[in-house]
Amino acid sequence: MLEAWIGFAGGVFAVLVSVAVAIRQSRVEERLERVRSDLATEQHRREVLIDRDLRAEDVLARYREPLAVAAFDLQSRLFNILRLDFFGLFGGEHERSEAAVRTTLFRLAQYFGWTEILRRDIQFLSFPEADDTRRVAHLQSEIAKRFLSDGYDEALMIWGDEQRALGERMIVEEHGKVLCMGYATFSERCESAFAPWYGRLREELQREVAHERLREVQHLLCELVETLDTNRVRYAEDLERA
What we know:
The protein is mainly alpha-helical. It has one domain.
């Protein structure tokens, strides 16, 4: 009888052990499955980030040169206004005063145009982690803030929506490519297509009270050009802060 109870108890113990082992095995498998799932999720997240950064870098690579040219041309004209009295020399009754104003407005609108083109292509990529792309986006944001800020005199205060609108008016499509219009086209259309801003900006450009705003913009544009000109060979020697 005792032997029977011992055998029964041994059987029960074996069953309990088997159940415990099975439960533990199940829990281990659940944990392993969760680990596998977490690893797969993390791998997917990293792949998405890498793909996003690669696409952002590709977008920046496409527009690096035209944006650098636009930023360089605008900062160059601002330097001439701030340090070389550009409108004092070519404004007023000078025979080229109209060209002086129009070319300056063109350079301003051209910068907004290429900024808007880049923004449209890169906006759905969230906040890219690539250093160059993030730095360019940061500098563009800072330049936009200087123009829209009410911390200066109101001269040349261009709100964010106005900056985008100016950029949109500059965008044209040629042979399936999105570009900014050239100066000849701008000159023909400036008084009609840019009517909401043309009269005000042409007058405010020549006001000395706008210089504080323009000086900070010019410095940021120099930083932007230096960031875009990664090899520091094309524009570095021609950049000078006003």
